Amino acid sequence: MILHKLEQTPTTLPYNGVWPMGNRDTKLADAAGKLKFYRFVEVNQYVAKGHKLFRSSAPAYENDDKDQEMTEERARFLKQTGIDCLISFNHVQYNVAQQGILKAAGITYL
């Protein structure tokens, strides 16, 4: 919901419209938002040359870390975006089945 609102009214962006530490690719953010990855942005500060780093909410996160849910479709999106490692700072881990989805997609889960 927030992602959609920000895209319609770019003047409401935080930090005077400048995304901190990254570039916002609207097309990629739209695709991520449809899969419930909110605030999806590429981080470009403090990232070694030749590497990419993205940040977002956990997929399907609403108000609690237990809300997160990894699906095959979401894992495919991550892989197609070039993501091969997912680092989670949530206090609730993905369950064994969801970790298996990531592993099957070739994505390391930390």
Describe the structure.
- With 110 residues, this protein is an alpha+beta fold.
- The protein has one domain.
- The chain contains 4 helices and 5 strands; from the N terminus they run H-E-H-E-E-H-E-H-E.
- It has a 3-stranded antiparallel β-sheet with strand order 1-2-3, with no helix packed on it.
- It is globular.
- Mean pLDDT is 79; it is low at 1-17.
Topology:
Layout lengths: L1 H7 L13 E2 L2 H9 L6 E3 L9 E3 L16 H9 L4 E2 L9 H9 L3 E2 L1
Parallel strand pairs: 4-5
Antiparallel strand pairs: 1-2, 2-3
| Side-by-side strand order of the widest sheet | 1-2-3
Distance between the termini: 28 Å
Order of helices and strands: HEHEEHEHE
Instruction: Give a short account of the largest sheet.
Output: 3 strands, antiparallel
Strand coverage percent:
5-15%
Query: Helical element count?
Result: 4
User: How many structural domains?
Assistant: 1
- Content-based structural category: alpha+beta
Shape: globular
Chain-averaged pLDDT:
79
- The tally of beta strands, per DSSP, is 5
Percentage of helical residues? 25-40%
Spans of at least 5 consecutive residues with low confidence: 1-17
User: Measured on Cα atoms, how large is the radius of gyration?
Assistant: 14 Å
